[in-house]
Amino acid sequence: MLTDKFGRTINYLRLAVVDRCNLRCTYCMPENGLTWIKQKELMTDEEMLRICSVFAELGVDKIRITGGEPFVRKNIINLIGNLSRLEGITDLSLTTNGLLTEQYIPQLKEFGVKSVNLSLDTLDEERFFTITRRKSFNTVMKTLEALLEHDIKVKVNTVVMEHQNIEDIIPLVLLTQQLPIDVRFIEEMPFNGNDGDISLKWNYPQIYKHIREHFPEIEKTADPKSSTSYSYRIPGFTGNIGIIAAYTRSFCGDCNRIRITPSGVLRSCLYEGTGINLKDEMRSGKTDEELKNSIINCIQNKSRDGWEAQKLSLTESQIHQSMATIGG
Fold this sequence. Notes:
The protein is α/β, with parallel strands linked by helices. It has helices spanning 45-57, 76-84, 105-110, 125-132, 137-149, 169-174, 204-214, 278-283, 288-300, 306-313, 316-319, 323-326, and strands at residues 2-3, 9-10, 12-16, 62-66, 91-96, 115-119, 153-160, 182-187, 219-220, 229-233, 240-244, 257-260, 265-267, 276-277. The two termini are 24 Å apart.
């Protein structure tokens, strides 16, 4: 098993398969998009499969496919199928905005995808357009319905933004009254592709306070080990609620995650500004054993928490890079 110098077991890989996205969410990237990674700099399917196999041999058993938007990548469904067949991987999941996902849901079910994180920051069609700069709200809702019809666990991810979607918090909580979903409210992070400031008013305590004012009977439930979300339920509701302290980073103590960017850079922390490029190592002819040594060394240098990682290696310019380039 992979362990860091703090004794934390690392068994969860977040694999970003592409940096491109078909939305332009205000909290993620500029309206005109980004300077996308050149095709030759992206990892190929074969390289992704190889590196994931190496991680599986080191004890990683959970992979989450992220982006950008994963389904923007050509033939992504074939890659997902091949990843699902890797020996040692017992938990395969993905994060998507839902625009291109619906047609692939039967295959995701067939491949054993256990859960899907669906980005949805509002239940209002006009606000959806304001936030994402795209008129695709109904498409996302159809994806949500289809996922539930196929009994795939759904976690709705909502970034809470002052002056943009505060009025959506309670309607989204009410979504869990009848539906078996988790709605998770996420603190806004500085990785927005812009130089603009973010509001820290709507942090974890403020989000919880707002929900409790409307639902005083809200109950704390047990948080799964290494969870990034603080879990809650409202008696009588079918689904659950979570709050992710993504900016204040109060969940780092038992972190079990690492991530690979679309260009193959292994980052031991979201707030880390550097990392080793496993794609370059593969293309230079490194053996699997040499790759394992590089990975182990990287994990041994994993920071105690996101604050330490940012202090050690993240510059001001890197803070404002997009989540699409880091890997969601």
